[in-house]
Amino acid sequence: MDSILIKHWNEKVGVNDDVYILGDLSYKSYHGIDYYMEKLEGHKHLIIGNHDEYWMQSTKDLGRYFESVSYMDMINNLLITLGHYPMFEWNRNRYIKSQVNSKSWMIYGHIHNSMDCEAYKVIKKKLICELNAGVDINNYEPVTFDELVFNNNKWYERNEISRNN
Fold first, then answer.
1. In sequence order, which ranges of 26-144 are alpha helices (DSSP H)?
2. pLDDT for residue 164
3. pTM summary value
4. Which of 50, 80, 99, 152 gets the highest tally of CB atoms within 10 A of its CB?
């Protein structure tokens, strides 16, 4: 599985691409984090998830692998809020009417592909611009923003269209 994930990553990510990892990068893995990070292309930004605390304790220099490490981040020019956990309020989400014209997005990872948790049900019903970045619903590969919107609309069974469709 590890070699396939690394292969998928490097087929899509170039050395100059920015990649945001929204937590749970590694958990109870056979290899240390160095093994993976040395093989992955791109400029990596880590949003710390609940499972990252395990491997972070034994990693001396996170700056060696990550351009940034935080619990939350925001891509201001796009009004994209990034966090490991889903949120019910983020910058300007009260003004969202549709995905097509939205300037405000929230991207998270924590629930993976769980459809039976309360967060899934609320997001599906009420938060059309909240997107799950978990590899479980994104073909086990890094995705562009438009691919993320498409995959989430399919997973959440939304009728919205992505901005480029």
1. 33-37, 52-56, 118-126
2. 52
3. 0.91
4. 152
